[in-house]
Amino acid sequence: MMKSNEHQPSEDELKWMYENMLISRKYEERIGEAYLEGKVPVFNMTKGPIPGEMHLSNGQEPCAVGVCVHLNDQDCVVATHRPHHIAIAKGVDLNAMTAEIYGRTDGLSRGKGGHMHLFDQQKNFSCSGIVGQSIGLAVGQALAAKLQGSNAVAIAFTGEGAVNQGLFHESLNLAAVWNLPFVCIIEDNKWGVSVSKETSTAIPRNSDRAQAYGIPGEYVENNDVWGIYSAAKRAIERARAGEGPSIIEIETIRMAGHFVGDQETYVPKAELEARQDPITVMGDRLIKENVLTADEVAAMVLNAEKKVKDAVEFASNSPIPEGNEALKNIFV
Length: 332
Ligand SMILES: Cc1ncc(C[n+]2csc(CCOP(=O)(O)OP(=O)(O)O)c2C)c(N)n1
Known about the structure:
By secondary structure, this protein is of the alpha/beta class. The chain has one domain: 3-Layer(aba) Sandwich (Rossmann fold), CATH 3.40.50. It has helices spanning 11-36, 61-68, 84-89, 94-101, 133-148, 166-177, 197-200, 225-240, 269-274, 278-288, 294-317; strands spanning 76-79, 119-120, 125-127, 154-159, 182-188, 191-192, 195-196, 217-220, 246-251. Strands 2-3-1-4-5-9-8 form a 7-stranded mixed β-sheet, with helices on both faces. α1 packs across α2 (61-68) and α5 (133-148) packs parallel to α6. The longest helix is centred in the first third of the chain and has 26 residues, at 11-36. It is globular. Bound molecules: thiamine diphosphate.
């Protein structure tokens, strides 16, 4: 059930969330461009500076900032194959992350992981290309936090498509039985590749599944930063206080295709037209409510562009690993 926005962000938190969304958006725009280098006019996934698939998160930025604004470095976040907005909001270094995406020596994992496997031990951030896996991994981290007696919480981000995997049920059940400091954030962008939520999922709101585990479940409508902030604060404070896990499902939008190159021909025209850019919505409101001036917004845009430019430059200048690097730091 949706609750009122009982917790309101401070001005500083609002500015942090908005600026972070801008950085994420500028980043995704630039990475999307770089990804296509060498892959057009004939799409060849192996060509260009960033080989492989690329899943961008434009439109989903509110989910990342509304949750991560409540976290510190000790708190663990496990994200999905669409991880950039969450990594940025968790404070992962943009240079090292970009070098990882480019497969370079200075990357977070010396270029071995790529864009779906970003791993930052210092920031307690990781992600996985295996759909649904974030849920089990984060529950494990929540168990570790509890056993170690720390007051860290663990957050799994997952898509609405992923929660039909068995691991969702197994993990949520254990998290509830063991009363773990865990929050499951479901980014409901309505589509699992080209399969709509309606056709894959028996009930409209996955947050209602919380009843099956005897824990709180909330659905936040309309990609609303304020609503996400409030719901996440409730769930994270509850987890930190030792009161157990929660599920939050957030109605969001995937502003582009499932991966770069997906033309989204399967999305109804009315849905495409109804999509509202959350950054425009938030920026307009912050200016209207005198939290920011138009000049301050313009300065934030410039700052975001500079950070992104520096990160891409850093990654491009980082050496490509030697061939024998492929055999180091791996399980055999
Ligand atoms: C276990 C597993 N099954 C299938 C895939 C292929 N796959 C990658 S993303 C995706 C859809 C995920 O949808 P959702 O969880 O809603 O996340 P979204 O892409 O919308 O962010 C699928 C089926 C995979 N990576 N892992």
